[in-house]
Design a protein that fits this description.
YecD_YerC, mainly alpha
Length: about 100
């Protein structure tokens, strides 16, 4: 884990997230913790990552999500050089469509 990210405050936040028991609790918690725009940005990045893993083009992703090419590029960099967090979640949730190429 990134040493700049691993602080007691961040660890406490992650423990709080892990304590949530269902989607309703997630909605309540994240609505209190994040602004609407912050939460929508997180959701947009998650959707961008999913679409990149499904081999969608930047143009398709931008049109569907409204994300800028800079955001798409940043998410793509995380997918290629990050800590595999997106892929771990996608695998657990079986979120990626089986594409035949």
């Amino acid at each position: 884990m990134n040493s700049k990210l691993k602080t007691p405050a961040v660890e406490q936040l992650f423990e709080a997230v892990l304590s949530l028991e269902n989607k309703d609790e997630c909605f309540d918690f994240f609505e209190d913790v994040c602004t609407i725009n912050e939460l929508l940005s997180l959701a947009q990045r998650f959707e961008v990552a999913k679409m990149l893993r499904e081999h969608k083009t930047y143009l398709d992703i931008a049109e569907k999500t409204g994300a800028s090419t800079a955001t798409i590029s940043r998410v793509n960099r995380s997918l290629n050089y990050g800590n595999d967090g997106y892929d771990r979640v996608f695998k657990r949730l079986n979120m990626l469509e089986e594409t035949e190429e």
